[in-house]
Design brief:
With about 230 residues, the protein is an all-alpha fold. The protein has eight helices and no strands. The N and C termini lie far apart (about 55 Å).
Length: about 230
Amino acid sequence: MIEVSKRKKILIDIFFLLLIIAIVYLSNFFFIEILIKLSIESDLLILAPTIIFIFLTSLTIFILYRYERVKVALDFSTRLRLKKLKFKEIIISLLTYLILLSLQGLLAMHSPDFFVFDSYLTSPVPIDPNIKIGVFISICLPIVMTLGAVIEELYWRGFILPLQEKRWGKFGWVLNGLFWSTSHFLVLNPLSILIVSLGISFIGHKYQNTSLTIVIHILNNLIFSYILLSQLQ
């Protein structure tokens, strides 16, 4: 039987996972349906989910930090592990990321049914596949995806990872990576990002620096933006 303390730890982790899944659902489904009813242009809907996600997640981080600050007397940057970047750490982390990304790509080639890059669930956004993406979207998408990466890292590696390390010790980063990849299941097959997810969580754990994982995540999202735009051109 699971001890009460361990049961509480698991429930808290599940709560944070369900919280972000709820935000993703609101961003990608509920609010998008509202925008569709308002007759928003379909190409602009490409940006809408991430913009809504950025706003809701930022609000969530702020609320959680204000609530926790009653017990933890740490300033925002210290609590979220926002430190100066070191050149050596950046190079090692980038190489690690690129190796893991290549490995994930190889696995996707041999197991396409399990490692897909398309949405895991059908999106309600009626984007015309023949639409020609304009300059506005081509410029704004990478910017929005970059902001999304920053906010996501502040939540998962800045706020959640330290808590998981405190509860689960040296294996906290594994749970963090698993939960982070799982949180994407509404819009993406978690298996398609599992390897990179674990890699970014490990980097955050090893160097205790969210600024570093933000850089890696931004690079990852810019690659994703390039692939998405190339598919929509």
